[in-house]
Amino acid sequence: MAIATKYTNSSPIDIPALIDRSRIGGFQIVMLTLCAICLIIDGFDVQAMGYVAPAIIQEWGIAKANLGPVFGAGLFGMLVGSLCFSILADRIGRRPVLIAATLFFAACMLLTPMAGTVGQLIVLRFVTGLGLGAIMPNAMALAGEYSPVRKRVTLMMLVSCGFTLGAVLGGLLSAALIPRFGWQSVFHVGGIVPLVIGVLMIFLLPESMQFLVLRGRRLEQVGKWLRRIDPAVVINQDTRYVVNEKAGKGAPMLQLFQEGRAKVTILLWIINFMNLVNLYFLSNWLPTIAKDAGLSTAAAVMAGTTLQIGGTLGTLIMGQLIDRSGFRRVLIPVFLIAGVAVALIGRPEISLLFLFASIFVAGFCIVGGQPAVNALAGTYYPTTLRSTGIGWSLGIGRIGSIVGPVLGGELIRLNWPNSSIFILLAVPALVSAVMLMMMQETSQRKAADAVIAH
């Protein structure tokens, strides 16, 4: 139940302040749930190719390294989608971009089972990636803009956790579906569900009120949504709204480097790049490498699922820790531990139990750390740059998500031993820790201090 608040016609309504002093009610819960479900489907679809790869390799009789470009094509599409559609969302709104992207990638997923060659898979995964790339920046931005500041990081990470949960569900469903119905069934499920979610969002998903006020659009609708948050608010034709931010001027991408934001922007890009090198190498190649090392198909898929389970728990736990201690104190040790865990995965002498424990810890730190990096970007940038800030941070990072799987394919093609591959993969995690140390040292200005060190 929202806290009752009295307003007079002459008093402007401070939207962020009203959200901050109101309890989180059903209206916000529905919005946050829709964003989380959207990310669950996003995570399921992004990881789908990694889960079906062993089955495609066996059915088509191709070398496993041939799927490297397929992984890379989907991630390159996500890169382009993140860069382009995040800017579009800061121009026309989060809602229309999020809905259109969901319906678009749903249709692409339903077309994927029709592929019969590696070339066709490359094209379909790239096009699908365009829609997938728009999901995370806009879902995170909306979640942050409807959350009170006291719980903003936790709620943004909980919503973002949907991506990791979707990857876990993808592994469980793939293990059940592929033996019975073939790899195509994974994409059928991954296409039908987002079609339903997209239709629901048309009727239930609100637009960012801060965005509409700064753009001077649909202010009557802002009043209706405010009443859903606080039924006691008094609104009429003369009501004015306050956001306490300046409307953006010029190209959103260039604004990421203005007003003292350049250093933090660049460091965020490097952290995203390094972490996504690891995340997408592990997500795409771990089941295949595990099977090649002697595990059964089901056990290989469960290795990938263990990675995502660790990531889900990491997200849930880290959100609370960051609210208490700040981003730097949590993420620096997390990425240092990640480097050790990744290096251990490739050791041939470790037991199966210790292997799965190392995979779990790597998932906890790397997969679970990515939502924290996204939340850092979402809390650092203002409303007019929030989608662009998250989208470009992710977009640049997704260069790393392309490099990871393609590099993995080349190292496998060159017959590198698993121990050497995973030692090399430990380096990006250590670099991420160093970048966070530099972010703290170089961001002494007020805005960066509030975000990084609380």
What's the gist of this structure?
The chain is an all-alpha fold and 454 residues long. It is built from 18 helices and two strands. 56% of the residues are buried.
Helices and strands, with pairings:
Layout: E1 13-14, H1 15-21, H2 26-60, H3 68-92, H4 94-111, H5 118-132, H6 135-145, H7 152-181, H8 184-204, H9 209-215, H10 219-229, E2 241-242, H11 252-255, H12 262-292, H13 297-325, H14 327-345, H15 352-380, H16 386-413, H17 418-442, H18 446-452
Helix pairs in contact: 2-6, 2-7, 2-8, 2-12, 3-4, 3-5, 3-16, 4-5, 4-6, 4-8, 6-7, 6-15, 6-16, 7-13, 7-15, 12-13, 12-15, 12-16, 12-17, 13-14, 13-15, 14-15, 14-17, 15-16
Structure explained in plain terms:
- It is globular, with a radius of gyration of 22 Å.
- The chain has 454 residues and is mainly α.
- The protein has 18 helices and 2 strands.
- It has a two-stranded parallel sheet with strand order 1-2.
- The longest helix is centred in the first third of the chain and has 35 residues, at 26-60.
- Helix 6 crosses helix 15 (352-380).
